[in-house]
Amino acid sequence: MYADLISFFTTNWLGMAIVMLAQCLAVTVPLLVSVAYMTYVDRKVWASIQLRRGPNVVGPFGLLQPFADGLKLVLKETIVPSSANGVLFIIAPMIAFMTALVAWAVVPFDDGWVIADINVGILYLFAISSLGVYGIIIAGWASNSKYAFLGALRSAAQMVSYEVSIGFVLITVLLCVGSLNLSHVVLAQSGWFWNWFWLPLLPMFVIFFISALAETNRTPFDLPMSEAELVAGFHTEYSAMTFGLFFLGEYANMILLSALGAVLFLGGWHSPIPYAPFTLVPGVVWFALKIAFLLFIFSWTKGTLPRYRYDQLMRLGWKVFLPVSLGWVVLTAAVLTFGGWLPKP
Amino acid sequence: MILQALAFYVFAAITVAAAAMVVVSRNPVYSVLFLILAFFNAAGLFLLIGAEFIAMILVIVYVGAVAVLFLFVVMMLDINLTELREGFLAYFPVGALIGAVLFAELLLGVGILGAGSATITGLNAHGAQVMAIDNTRAIGRVLYTQYFYLFQVAGLVLLVAMIGAIVLTLRSRPGVRRQKAGEQINRTKEQSITVVKVPTRGGV
After folding, report:
1. DSSP state, B62?
2. pLDDT attached to residue B120
3. Nearest CA in chain B to A119
4. Peptide bond into A200 cis (omega under 30)
């Protein structure tokens, strides 16, 4: 009986399709719930920073607030401006949301808990994150509005600039690992928490985090939607669920980059202390805690820092991060080669 | 195997159709978007033959960087669509000729590949040697050992092209006050403000 079932799910194409669908749901549903509660936590953190209470009316402690907001967005009318390009106007938020979701296919949640354990996992994530810009740039153009267009241009320039330094950060990490597979990246960081890459590669961790802020268009780099100058930037003309998809996509992207930070620098599913009471906690819990920690820093920066000016943003990306990360790549390669620590293939 | 063949024909059909739409679509923005679709499906074709590294690099470099800049330029241009279509018939024979030459060369290449000439068997020998490891590693090993100098020369060519582009677009505008972040940050209170006690009715 069991043998039949196992052979059905491992050899029959229908069974394999069912397993694949179940895996996708097992990642997507918790992700969407986390996105919903991330909006709630975000507002609570800012409220605490500003000595307010934050959402506290809908449900106990305001816990049902994200669902009330979601329901509101679903029930409102989707307005397509008459001079907008209808097809692209609708496709743009879909692209923005989809790119934030498909990247999760290669993220390892625990030892062996990954949908697609591919050899080029880091490159796949990098490729998908470079696609996120299309949702924004198409939205800006299709809206046929000057604010949306300016916001889209700013966003595209910003994301392309900061991708360069993220690329160099990835190269440093994979020099230390010797593999492009994300599970191997985590396995290379086993042991005590000072074995994780955040300590040996501390400058790169800082650069990665700041570039992640810029990639996700968060404060202090939220120029694409700086309300004082551009109304709401690229999603000025969007309403209801088309806006909702941009909003969810932004938060899903934040969680994705936090997960990437946890995998690359904070030891993924490993517990900080490799001994009994800590190792009994499932790896996926440690992974979630690390993501939550990075997300808290996202909210903290948003509540604390003022917005950068555009030329300062470009200066930081091209004149500070690019030379520093490039130099650090060369330094890491030199240390690994001459110290004899180069990972064995 | 059937699934793979099906995937191949889907990717191939979409690539060809998207490439055709790049040429015939009226709006240049649509052309760029169809070009991106074509890139994507080409990446899918690479994945099918097991060249995952090249597929990812295709998406990162062409879709993630080159096509974004195309889209930037095309969106910012104020393009007159009717004017753009006027030269179509005049340029058509030239385009068709170039296309025919490229197609013939491709066929020739495939023919040589089928016949198994010296260069191809050489490549296959390489392939047999490196098949045990994944193809990212295989490309790295060949690129940084056997073809090291060619690789470096390619890098130098790109560097020269980059410097050329910068030199061509660099303008020296007199009278522009530049932002100097170092000076701005190092400014102290003493340098920038003076506190003056103004006597009542006396003025400064």
Report:
1. I
2. 46
3. B134
4. no
The minimum CA-CA distance between B72 and chain A, rounded to whole Å, is 8
The DSSP output letter for A76 is: S
Pull the structure tokens for residue A171.
Answer: 């190269």
Helix residue spans in chain A (DSSP H): 2-10, 13-49, 65-75, 86-102, 121-142, 146-177, 182-187, 202-215, 227-230, 240-265, 276-279, 283-304, 310-315, 322-339
CB spacing of B68 vs A120 below 8 angstroms: no
Q: Burial-class residue A337 by CB neighbours within 10 Å (0-12, 13-18, 19+).
A: exposed
Angular region, B193: left φ>0, alpha ψ -120 to 50, beta rest:
beta
CB within 8 A of A319, min separation 6: which ones? none
Q: Give the mean pLDDT of B98-104.
A: 91
Mutation target to probe the B interface, by most B beta carbons within 10 A, among A131, A154, A161, A175 is: A131
Of A130, A149, A156, the CB nearest to B60: A130
pLDDT along chain A (345 residues), means of 10: 74 80 88 89 90 86 87 86 83 89 87 81 87 86 85 84 88 87 84 80 89 85 73 79 87 90 86 78 86 91 86 87 92 88 73
Nearest residue to A219 via CA among A7, A49, A99: A49
- The alpha-carbon gap from A16 to the nearest alpha carbon of chain B, in Å, equals 13
Mean pLDDT across the stretch B69-79? 79
**ipTM field:** 0.81
- The residue among A227, A177, A180, A218 whose CA lies nearest residue A200 is A177
Distance CA A259, CA A265 (A): 10
Q: Is B132 on the interface with A (CB under 8 A)?
A: no
Give the three-state DSSP class for A202. Answer: helix
Q: How confident is the model at residue A1, as a pLDDT?
A: 67
Compare all CA atoms of chain A with the CA of B59 and give the residue at the minimum distance: A127
Q: Which helix (H) or strand (E) holds B34?
A: helix B28-48
CA dist., res. A129 & res. A118, Å (int): 17
How close B53 gets to chain A, by Cα (Å)? 7
Task: Indicate if the alpha-carbon torsion angle A255, A260, A266, A267 is positive or negative.
Answer: positive
